[in-house]
Design goal:
3 helices, Immunoglobulin-like
Length: 417
């Protein structure tokens, strides 16, 4: 009897164990399947939502590009080392330093391209003159900069003189893009008058006879890619140091849509230099010791099919250019749409500050409607010479170009600050 009871008990226990095992296996399968389904649903729902933490996304610097009221411009320089584009929500505040009163604020989505440095600009608006704090935060990143706002003061020579006849549109340039000096996207006030006498004291090196200039404007006519030339002024040893802001405007009046029409509407250097002298030197060998040194803005009226900007997959067939530190060996790239380029005035602000060189290109003289911006790391060097225009030059450095195409236009209203 005892043996029978023990046998029955063993059978019952074995059955219970089997039942428990079946239940555990079924529950485990159901739970894992349900969890996997939930994860997939969450992935679908979150595919367009920014992650809470993005590794290898950096806010490298804030650079105050323009501190003249009412329309300020601040560049936020990101670095995205991820292999995908990243979209983040950024917010900013502009406050008085003395009492933290908010003068302006904003919030917007920003997309930073994969594996690249990217320059984003914001434009606070204020009438306050004094010390302010600009703060920016996005995706756990934060930076701030303190600076003084100011008002435009025309300190150039001959400021009371009337513009010359060949420069009748330099103050406002209503014929270029419909801008009446009051356009803007943000805050009234209109544009300050263009400086008169911007190129007083400048010199000319023009062996090809394609450049002329007055005190108010530099004009280039049928400037070919193999022409040399420079309109320049030596300001003295080390005049252009680690911090400055320069403003000017330019227009391409020809319809040249080829890379051959490259020109430089701005550069600082220690010897007058064309594009190829910066890049190749006298012997046409890149990275050679005779390459010229300096900072330069280069404009290409149009790219070719095989032209790409750094880390961008699409060919660049629209007008484009770069801001470059030829000494330090770095560059930042920008694109100007066709409709904003040919026959249109482009207003430019270039700032060197906080270890970066930044360019912002605007559609309007009030500098509120931004076309594009770019930045690059800059070294510690200082420079003596300002070039209001320099040609491409040195055709022997690129003999594979079989044809010569010309570009015409002008540069004006240079303001050094």
């Amino acid at each position: 009897m005892l043996k029978l009871s023990t046998l029955r008990l063993g059978i019952i226990i074995a059955a219970i164990i089997i039942i428990i095992a079946i239940i555990v296996t079924w529950a485990s399968y159901y739970y894992s399947s349900d969890l996997e389904s939930d994860d997939n649903d969450q992935d679908d729902k979150k595919s367009d939502v920014e992650p809470e933490v993005i590794d290898e996304l950096y806010l490298n610097a804030l650079v105050v590009v323009d501190n003249e009221i009412p329309n300020l411009t601040v560049a936020i320089i990101f670095e995205n080392a991820e292999e995908i584009d990243v979209s983040i929500s950024g917010s900013w505040n502009l406050t008085q330093e003395n009492n933290s009163e908010i003068l302006d604020s904003g919030e917007e989505m920003v997309t930073i391209l994969a594996d690249t440095n990217d320059t984003h600009t914001v434009q606070p608006i204020t009438d306050y003159i004094g010390s302010v704090v600009f703060e920016y935060s996005a995706n756990g990143l934060y930076d701030s900069v303190v600076f003084n706002t100011t008002i435009f003061v025309n300190t150039t020579e001959n400021e009371t003189e009337e513009p010359s006849e060949d420069n009748e549109t330099s103050n406002g340039d209503e014929d270029s893009n419909g801008d009446d000096g009051q356009s803007g996207g943000g805050g009234g006030g209109g544009a300050p008058p263009a400086p008169s006498g911007s190129y007083t004291g400048f010199n000319e090196f023009d062996p090809n006879g394609s450049i002329t200039f007055t005190k108010d404007r530099i004009t280039f006519t049928e400037l070919a890619r193999d022409h040399d030339g420079s309109i320049y002024k030596d300001m003295g040893t080390g005049y252009f140091g680690s911090t400055f802001t320069h403003k000017f405007q330019f227009k391409v009046t020809s319809d040249n849509k080829t890379l051959e029409g490259t020109f430089m509407p701005w550069s600082v250097c220690n010897e007058i230099s064309t594009y190829h002298q910066f890049r190749y030197g006298a012997d046409c060998i890149e990275n050679n010791s005779d390459d010229h040194v300096g900072l330069a803005l280069t404009i290409h009226p149009k790219g070719q099919e095989d032209i790409t900007l750094s880390n961008e997959s699409e060919n660049i067939t629209e007008p484009h250019g770069n801001i470059r530190d030829w000494t330090f060996g770095s560059a930042g790239h920008f694109v100007i749409p066709d409709e904003d380029f040919f026959g249109k005035m482009i207003y430019v602000t270039i700032t060197r500050s906080n270890g970066y060189l930044v360019v912002v290109l605007y559609r309007d003289s009030s500098r509120t409607d931004i076309i594009d911006s770019a930045s690059t790391l800059t070294g510690p060097d200082s420079y003596d010479i300002i070039q209001g225009l320099a040609a491409r030059g040195a055709r022997p450095c690129a003999p594979w170009y079989s044809d010569v195409f010309n570009v015409s236009g002008y540069v004006e209203a240079l303001k050094l600050g």
